Amino acid sequence: MQIPIDPTSPRPAHEQISAHFAHLIRRGVLAPGTRLPATRQLANALGIARGTVSLAYDNLGRSGLVRTAVGAGTFVLETPASASDTPSPARPTATRFDWRGYVGDRIPPADDTVMAAVLEAVPPGIEPINLLRPIPDPSLVPLDDVRRAFRDVSRALRPDVLDYASAWGYAPLRERLAHDLATLGMDRADDRTLLVNGSQQGLDLVARALLRPGDVVVTERPAYRGALRVFQASGARVRALPMDAFGLDLDALERTLRAEPVRLIYATPAFHNPTGRSMDVDRLKRLLDIAGRAHVPIVEDGCFRELRYDGTPAPALKALDARGLVIHLGTFSKTLFPGLRVGWLAAPATLVDRLAHYRRDVDLGSVTLGQAVIHRLLEDGVLERHLDRIRETYRARRDALVTPLIGTGLEQRLDGAHLDPPSGGMSVWIDFDPPLSGFDVARRIATRGVLVSPGAFFDPGGADLPGIRLAFSTVDEAALARAADAVIDAVREARRTPERPAASAQPTTPVI
Ligand SMILES: Cc1ncc(COP(=O)(O)O)c(C=O)c1O
């Protein structure tokens, strides 16, 4: 690539390079998703220091034109062509307002560049087996029951249901949930339940209400991307702590709590996303004890709780919580479907009532109609029957994926890979030790027509974690068996010919 650099210009070389790329991007010559040359390659081509190219790419990143993903490269982001670059013949040209610059880094950029680089590796013309999304299989949704529930709800529609609803949500569903939570031991006298537009909104409300820039939030590492993004958007510093086979490493938690003030702990004790791991009752009790002594609340993400396929259920963290420290999040997104956006948050009323008032500022209340449909499905016993069915199907799918991987002992099969078969949830995690780049392995798997998520998705700083997530819930058993073969093949190849060492597990970057 030729970039004219004028050595006599008072403008430093890195600015000349970034201006050149910015021009090409704004003109649409470099399309969104295009990977810029590697810094070393471009530096060699231009006969300049690699650091100069890095500075130029940093400039472009700050302008929101590109995004650099560790281990993947630097990619052009979606950018509206500026009017001055592409004047419309019908209108006079005007300089368009620079929203990208105005927003700056207040909203975390979309992190689709790592994925773009994985998708790129799928050979043309192949419909890949998609193990990217831990979501319910849409083909299993009991559509007739859902249609009937919509019909019943619409027949009973009264004008007041169309008014702004209570900020706490549709009362009959809240009552039903309170009853169901009570049967699970999550019914403290001073608790209240708030219906939210998906548990993601619950996370967002908690972050807005409780976090200020600079606050420290502890999470597992790896952790659910949606939670990391919400915490980071609030300006919190995320300390992502290691996990073992039973979830969050509590010795590491104790050390962190001793080292600095922590504002919030976020954990997914049952069928954690992405690892599928679960805390046993001893771990849950110790977690509560540690958090209680440090006076730090815990957000318990119960997203996959209901999806247990074998083993004895551990209680919810909230059910063991005598101090009122736990904010429990639940959702119908994984048990039924995510489209109606119905989830809940259960916690002591002193907090929930504040959050309910606060959510009025966000959306003036919840969507009653969707909540009424979910309520109908619960009352008709549809959810219970549906759960029996999906548990059976997902169990079989988990086995179809996991059995070939651990067939004769995973370590022999996959050479330095480790997998704890999850007893529920929608995903399986493979760790590579000695490390392999999760990104490199995901790309090699993609060349075999299978899509999996690289570990980098689940690290707060986007570090190339030496692991991959395989989400199995939407794929049939035959395809899962083929996917397992592709994984084994790709991991062996990566061991034989590592592209490059995995990025060392970088310390958690405080993202502010
Ligand atoms: C661990 C975890 N928590 C929360 C959510 C948010 O789900 P929803 O907002 O649909 O309830 C997800 C979605 O995938 C998730 O994986």
Total helices: the number is 17
State the separation between the terminal residues, measured CA to CA: 35 Å
Number of strands: 17
What gross morphology would you assign? globular
Helix content: 40-55%
CATH topology of the largest domain: Aspartate Aminotransferase, domain 2
Beta-strand proportion: 5-15%
Chemical compounds bound to the protein: pyridoxal-5'-phosphate
Radius of gyration: 25 Å
Q: Please state the structural category.
A: alpha/beta
Strand order of the largest sheet: 4-12-11-10-9-5-6
Level-2 CATH architecture of the largest domain: 3-Layer(aba) Sandwich
**How many individual domains?**
3
Q: Can you offer a commentary on this structure?
A:
The chain has three domains: 13-87 and 99-106, Winged helix-like DNA-binding domain superfamily/Winged helix DNA-binding domain (Arc Repressor Mutant, subunit A, Orthogonal Bundle); 115-139 and 385-496, Aspartate Aminotransferase, domain 1 (Alpha-Beta Complex), CATH 3.90.1150; 143-380, Aspartate Aminotransferase, domain 2 (3-Layer(aba) Sandwich). The chain has helices at 13-26, 39-46, 50-62, 99-103, 113-119, 143-155, 171-183, 199-210, 225-233, 250-259, 281-294, 349-363, 368-379, 382-406, 410-414, 438-447, 477-496, and strands at residues 66-69, 73-76, 129-130, 191-196, 216-220, 237-241, 243-244, 247-248, 264-267, 298-301, 326-331, 343-348, 417-419, 427-432, 450-451, 453-454, 467-471. It has a seven-stranded mixed sheet with strand order 4-12-11-10-9-5-6, sandwiched between helices. It is built from 17 helices and 17 strands. It binds pyridoxal-5'-phosphate. The site of pyridoxal-5'-phosphate has 14 residues, from helix 8.
